[in-house]
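Quarterly update from the structural biology core.
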Amino acid sequence: MSMKRVTLFCGHYGSGKSNLAVNYALYLRSLGKAVSLADMDIVNPYFRSADSKTELEAAGVTVVALPFARSNVDLPALPAELYGLVQRRDTFAVLDVGGDDRGALALGRYVPYLRAENDYDMLFVVSFRRPLTPTAEDALAVLREIELAAGLRFTGLVNNTNLGAETTAGTVLDSVAETQKLSVLAGLPVVMTSFDRRLGELPVPSPFPMALQKNDPARGA
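Predicted structure, tokenized:
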């Protein structure tokens, strides 16, 4: 995929977007980029990208997290650093946006900056093994809800279909056709097929092997 200065990962709760955001930030850093990761997830009470702060900062990735995440605050006050990420143009920014349309509401205040610079990708992360997105049609409905809440259109799709630690190569390969169907319905390209690197090389579109984070409950820990 092309590397835009700002990459936003959005998806339904449980799609695995936080794990993906962490891995993508580390990937950019491995290329020598200056990288910041913003954890904007106000929905997920379990694994969040900020839970990997120690690993990220050890690799040289700056982490910005919401002060009221996991609270009952619907739209928490956002730290000034988040505005800096979308306004400054000397660093790559990875934004882990909260699950579904409620989490995407927090993104709306950044839209004018993102549109003005026009150097971003907003990627819809989908797992066809989640209860509310088992088909391309179901996933499309979630995608449109997020777009409406955020006030911004998606630019691409990420197939992150998995069963956590029980994921097999077949789990990933079986999802390719449904992802292609979603691509046609949404009119968006598939820019990544992400999977646990322990599965080895897989013949999938735009493969992105990654490591499951140690705090991710999908590891079975």
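Residues 136-150 form the longest helix (15 residues).
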